[in-house]
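This entry is passed on directly below:
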Amino acid sequence: MAAKPTPKAAETSTVTDRTTKRTINGAERRYQNLLHSSPMGIHLFRLDGDGRLIFTGSNPAADTLMHTDNSRLLGLPMEEAFSGLKNTEVPERIREICAGGAAWRTDHLEYRSLDIAGAFEMHCFQVEPGLCACMFQDRSEHKLMESRLRHLTQQDPLTGIANRPMCLERIGIALQRAKRRADYRHAIIYIDLDRFKNINDTQGHHAGDAVLVETAKRLRASVRELDTVARIGSDEFVVLMEEFDSYKRPIQAVKRIRQALAAPFLLENEEITVTASIGLALGQDLASSAEEALRNANLAMHHAKALGRNRIKSFTQSLLRQTLNVVRLENDMDRAIARGEFFLEFQPILQLGKNRQLFGFEALARWRHPDRGLIMPGEFIPIAEDSGKVVELGYWALREASRILTKWRERYPHMQDAMMSVNLSPQQVPKTDFLPRMREILNETRLPARNLKLEVTETALMQSGTSVLSKLHELRDMGVSFSVDDFGTGYSSLSYLTRLPLDHLKIDLSFVRMLETGKDNLEIVRAIIQLATSLRMDVVAEGVENANQHGILTDLGCEYFQGYLFSRPLSEERAEAFVQTFTSEAITS
């Protein structure tokens, strides 16, 4: 039989029960105070035996944030009480919290129902097994501000269209879609305004800005609303097209863009015409990154510009290979001169008039690449010009050619008056050290200035300014001769030619080759020779390949000849052998 508790023990138990009850009641009051005074909305959900989440309570802040009386929803399942949560991850998360206790938080929950829409931050945790509290606050204004700031950082401030970061982001999204969907199509149109710098230089930057703003409007009007139009450089624009049924659509868009840009731009009551070079990269050439995709379109645009501007070119893998080859050659060119990979060949120029003699040679640069073998000027000279390396290459060729002719003059008496023709790059002359370096090379190689002839293209001469012409005149006063290379292919005017220090006109080989194909071509060459005669210049015909061409040119009054009929370009050793055998006596005979 159990012993009865002593009066003292019973009194102690009663005190303990009262203390525990007061503690529980205090905790409940603090919980209720927290629930009602919290500035964050609070919803309570209990997991019932059927796995449903039942809405069991809320606080006043929840009513304020949700713009509703939550008490009318008590006892309803979550998806019925809050329809905006049906297609979200929230129900499953809260079930896990009720059962397991792990907390969950999200910074951005998009909630949309018939009564309310907004963005909320939510923090959910277990109050007790089977009961979950969800604390939330409205972040709509914050998200709206973030959206506005993001828009500002991804918008071109001048034109209001997307900027480069936004363009790259959209292209990146397009690439991801293309990987997931076989039916997804996209294309990048890269637009560069031709000679835009001239507008800034002649009309002012305010006029240039006006053209850019109007260009953006015309591009926007030429494509669909869902397409992205961006300005990614000074005068460079990109259109990203997405979700179209056929790759004919980008082609049609390009045509609309060209038509839109063809309309004159009105600048302060003056109309100007703007053209554009356009590159097109289709999404079927899937790139590995947004930068690569944009680069592909850029390569196509530059190819269009190199072909004469106001053109359209599409990206191809062969174009990429060609560009990579150019980049490799440009890098190799830096060390090619130092390693002695460049060398000269010499093509004889013969005077076959009354006094038949060896007039001289034209020095022609060649590149013996360690991996690719012989590379001809047609491939590496454009690369050298684009990179600016043609300046040092030109001085190397001039020094080497002058050194070799000096050696031949010392060995062979009949070479005292021989000329060495060397091509002069238009990039060399504007340099401040041009004249000092020319004098240095002539002094170093001991070649008399009268034995040097510099060949300049017709187009380069036409683009020369006053300072360039004064330098050429100074060299002419020293005794250096000048020749217009490829005459007839440019746009020279008679009045301009009379101002230039020229001694020779070289008829372009394209005219020589057409001599036998029609009377009109013959008349062109006749006119060139008559023009040179009237300006007291000698005429050199290059590219003479057969006796018939030689005969026609002789009848027209041409005395100087260069071409395969007489000799191909020769190595230094073979050129010297040509000098030895081609004496004045040999020519006369």
About this structure: The first strand starts at residue 41 and ends at 47.
